[in-house]
């Protein structure tokens, strides 16, 4: 009886204290524990690439460019088309990437219904006539069909969308996010490499024989370094854009950046999955695998090349003081390793997050520390478990405003420099 009473009191106390202490959080709360999956290669459906022609050869659609994805297109009459977007293989995360061009011999307005394999309409359409400058589709030309009922994630977005666009002889790009294929990423890396302390070299080859490149920012001969990677997942362009701003700040001309480079080297793999990016994949590499599950068994050449690079650097005597892997999801979120696991070593990460947040009060960003670090599977865990690196998954929202992404990347770099130079 007393035992029962005590346990009732204890439960009440726990419930009350949990209720009292529950932090007020808004926005995306983060994903749960990652399931353990095999990373042995699986078949991938290579996309047919080419030009579709309609209405007596007056209207055309094409997916034949870097990062293009359009798996089928049907003409329904009355200037209405239905586009089919499918994944490279399944099961797969719901990141239905699309990118195609459309044009016609005479100017006209058409409507395109976007449909997806086992997914809903995650990415808001962007338009461009040069493949470089993109603007979101005017909302007056966006019609959601079967709107989502959830508050966040795939359940909150429409099942299909119908978009209205004006087309003419000049091809119009319609894409899920801005295009940053391997050619454009290389242009950025080359532009950075005009600085005397920036060099780029190959550390391996992807499954389809694309270069795996490291950008090295190095002045002086110290053996402390920061490691940064991005684009394990092809559609995650917003993570890439924040990473780009982060790196440009660390490699910049400010006295702090100079001071940083006088004490630390910086290694960057800006494009972890060049095959997936150039083939317009939703998630996987050409081995049909989510690379961010392969940091335990290293069955894929892309992850192996970075593993071997890190092992080599450590053999050369390097100590890694910070590691970041940039991604995109439903909203900005930080995934550090929980302090009960990482202890004092992780203080820099939590201080860094706090300092960034203090400078960006306009946008609350959730933090979801992870206690699951073995098997390592994801890059952050591998960085910490195998190389003793305080490491984080830095996630940006699909729809986070682009000027805010740039600002966040810059401030994240400035705050990291401050902490590392203390
Ligand atoms: Zn990701």
Automatic annotation (TrEMBL):
Cofactor(s) it depends on: Zn(2+)
Active-site residues per Swiss-Prot or TrEMBL entry: 395 (proton donor/acceptor)
CDD domains: M14_Nna1-like (cd06237)
Keywords assigned by UniProt, alphabetized: Carboxypeptidase, Hydrolase, Protease
Protein name according to UniProt: Zinc carboxypeptidase
The organism of origin for this protein: Maribacter sedimenticola
PROSITE patterns to which the protein is assigned, alphabetical: PEPTIDASE_M14, PROKAR_LIPOPROTEIN
Gene Ontology molecular function: any one: carboxypeptidase activity
Taxon lineage: Bacteria, Pseudomonadati, Bacteroidota, Flavobacteriia, Flavobacteriales
Location of the Peptidase M14 domain: 178-422
Family label: Belongs to the peptidase M14 family.
Pfam families in alphabetical order: Peptidase_M14 (PF00246)
């Amino acid at each position: 009886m007393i035992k029962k009473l005590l346990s009732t009191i204890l439960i009440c106390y726990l419930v009350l204290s949990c209720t009292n202490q529950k932090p007020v959080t808004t926005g995306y709360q983060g994903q749960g524990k990652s399931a353990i999956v095999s990373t042995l290669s699986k078949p991938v459906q290579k996309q047919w690439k080419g030009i579709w022609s309609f209405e007596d050869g007056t209207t055309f659609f094409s997916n034949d460019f870097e990062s293009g994805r359009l798996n089928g297109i049907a003409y329904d009459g009355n200037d209405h088309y239905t586009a089919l977007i499918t994944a490279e293989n399944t099961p797969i995360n719901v990141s239905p990437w699309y990118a195609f061009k459309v044009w016609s011999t005479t100017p006209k307005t058409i409507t395109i219904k976007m449909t997806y394999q086992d997914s809903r309409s995650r990415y808001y359409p962007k338009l461009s006539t040069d493949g470089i400058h993109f603007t979101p589709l005017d909302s007056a030309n966006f019609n959601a069909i079967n709107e989502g009922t959830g508050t966040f994630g795939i359940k909150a977005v429409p099942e299909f969308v119908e978009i209205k666009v004006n087309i003419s002889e000049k091809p119009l790009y319609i894409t899920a996010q801005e295009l940053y294929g391997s050619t454009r990423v290389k242009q950025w890396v080359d532009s950075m490499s005009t600085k005397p302390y920036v060099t780029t070299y190959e550390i391996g080859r992807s499954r389809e024989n694309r270069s795996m490149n490291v950008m090295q920012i190095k002045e002086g001969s110290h053996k402390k370094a920061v490691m940064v990677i991005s684009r394990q997942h092809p559609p995650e362009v917003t993570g890439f854009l924040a990473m780009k701003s982060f790196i440009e700040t660390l490699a910049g001309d400010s006295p702090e950046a100079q001071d940083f480079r006088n004490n630390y080297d910086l290694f960057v793999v800006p494009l972890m999955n060049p095959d997936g990016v150039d083939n317009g994949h939703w998630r996987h590499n050409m081995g049909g695998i989510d690379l961010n599950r392969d940091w335990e068994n290293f069955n894929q050449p892309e992850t192996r090349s970075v593993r071997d690079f890190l092992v080599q650097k450590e053999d050369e005597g390097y100590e890694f003081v910070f590691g970041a892997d940039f991604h995109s999801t439903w909203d900005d979120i930080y995934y550090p390793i929980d302090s009960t696991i990482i202890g004092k070593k992780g203080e820099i990460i939590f201080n860094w997050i706090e300092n960034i947040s203090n400078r960006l009060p306009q946008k609350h960003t959730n933090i979801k520390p992870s206690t699951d670090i073995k098997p390592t599977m994801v890059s952050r865990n591998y960085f910490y478990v195998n190389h003793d690196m305080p490491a984080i998954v830095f996630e940006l929202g699909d729809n986070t405003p682009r000027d805010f992404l740039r600002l966040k990347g810059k401030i994240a770099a400035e705050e990291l420099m401050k902490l590392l130079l203390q």
